[in-house]
Amino acid sequence: MAETANQLWKAAHPNETINFLYRNNVTYVVLLWGGLTTNLVWCMILNTRNKTFHDYTNKKVNLANNYFFAALAGTTWFLQFFFYGMGESKLGNGASSWILHMAFIILVANLWGFALKEWKGVSQRTKTTIIVGVVMILLSVMLVGYGNAVK
């Protein structure tokens, strides 16, 4: 699908020498519908099993906040794939782009965890393990970058 989108874009823009920036994002239509279907079916099964359908309309809870933050989380989650697709379209280095994408997610999540004091109260050994893991990720990213440079 991505290659077809790229070919169609190039045919419509014959003077352009670069690839279509959003070529990888067309695959998300298929991928995300599959994820939506799976999650929707499983949530309905759990709502039936746990008898929790009433939680969607519970007047005792601030539903506007719940729906807003759920939508914000979903939008943020989608945008990470959207921007990853754009980056991979420009970088064009396949698996290396995915490695960098995942490493960046882990690094940012841990930095936010430290900044928001989510790791407060854990043992020093746990903090050391996290820091060693982050250093390993950074070294891995440098190794991937070096490997791509010499390729």
Give the H and E element order. HHHHH
Shape category: flat
Largest sheet: number of strands, sense, barrel closure: none
- The share of residues in helices is over 70%
Average pLDDT figure: 88
Rg, Cα atoms, Å: 21 Å
Give the terminus-to-terminus CA distance: 27 Å
How many DSSP-defined strands?
A: 0
The total of helices stands at 5
Beta-strand content estimate: under 5%
Task: Explain what this protein looks like in three dimensions.
This protein is an all-alpha fold and 151 residues long. The chain folds into 2 domains: 1-90, no CATH class; 93-151. The chain is 74% helix and 0% strand. It contains 5 helices and no strands. Helix 4 packs antiparallel against helix 5.
Outline the fold blueprint.
Elements: H1 2-12, H2 28-50, H3 63-91, H4 95-115, H5 124-150
Helix pairs in contact: 4-5
Task: List the main descriptive attributes of the protein structure presented here.
151 residues, single chain, mainly alpha, 2 domains
In short:
With 151 residues, the protein is an all-alpha fold.
